[in-house]
Amino acid sequence: MGYGLKGFDYAEAILLVTQLGRSAYGIGNMILSRFLKCLSVLALVGSLVDFSQADSIRWSKSYKAALAASKSSGKIIMIDMYTDWCQWCKVLDQKTYPDSRVVAAARNFTSVKVDAEREGTSLAARYGVHTYPKILFLDSKENLVYVVSGYQPPERFAVSMKSAQKSLADGRKYTATLAHNPSDLNALAVMAGVSLDREQFDKAQGYLQRAQTSSPKAKLDKLAEAYMNFGGHFYQEKDMGSAVNCFEKATMKAKSPQTIYEANVNLAALLYQTNRRGEAIGQIQNAIKNPSLSAKQKGNMKKMLGEMQSH
């Protein structure tokens, strides 16, 4: 993972936290000390733990075989959609898949590699795969559960695999909730995030629109989380303008101290990333004045402010 800004890149830290996940699939749990120590912690872990290949992923011989195994075991199917010319597909094979953390997580999946330009043309067309590498996670009924687009290093990919399992469980749980109560704000917010994780943007927008029209004031935090979900999506799509817009909306809807904190820190980080340094500093300075924030949250913000002002 590349870190700029003399060893620290707020936007990359946002992406890391996104991959680590939260209950509503948003940016969430943005503890600044984690950012500042991210590289040193990863280096320390790497020096203490041997993540070399102790085993290997057991790849099914074909998609048909993987599907049959999934129907029998109930495990999620993990499909590596690759092409011969895809360089990052090769890096996945060399760096990510042999890692012991990924190998261990893969035991909970039925895994298969599919050449998207040979035996996998119909599968690629069915799930709209146009860029590579693309890792699809399907349930035993071939419903899309989760999508990883592009290369991920081992530590992030192992987290994504866990997120795929959570996406399946939450999708089932909150779909059932909405069947009984179509205006349940918590369910709508979660399903917006689940849909984004599945790259089903139209569905995600539909859930967000329903959440916007059915959000009681007492539960505006859930709507703020939904906006953060979309902010994370737009960030990963490199649509920084839309990402900033979503986090601005999140700051206006956030009510609890934790959500206020997360929304403001993320917004400031994105403003800084988009060369709006003055606005980013102002965002943090104003947020620190919020009386509902804890001393720890304000302390973290002050550290972030100091980093911004020193560069």
List the helices and strands and how they pair.
Layout: H1 10-20, H2 32-36, H3 38-48, E1 59-60, H4 63-73, E2 76-82, H5 87-96, H6 100-106, E3 109-115, H7 121-126, E4 134-138, E5 144-149, H8 154-180, H9 185-197, H10 201-213, H11 220-236, H12 240-253, H13 257-273, H14 277-288, H15 295-309
Parallel strand pairs: 1-3, 2-3
Antiparallel strand pairs: 2-4, 4-5
Helix pairs in contact: 6-8, 8-9, 9-10, 9-11, 11-12, 12-13, 13-14, 13-15, 14-15
Folded structure, characterized:
The protein is an alpha/beta fold and about 300 residues long. About 60% of the residues lie in helices and about 10% in strands. The protein is built from 15 helices and five strands. It has helices at about 10-20, 30-35, 40-50, 65-75, 85-95, 100-105, 120-125, 155-180, 185-195, 200-215, 220-235, 240-255, 255-275, 275-290, 295-310; strands at about 60, 75-80, 110-115, 135-140, 145-150. The chain has a five-stranded mixed sheet, with helices on both faces. Helix 13 runs parallel beside helix 15 (about 295-310). The longest helix has 27 residues, at about 155-180. The chain is globular and about 60 Å long. The two termini are about 20 Å apart.
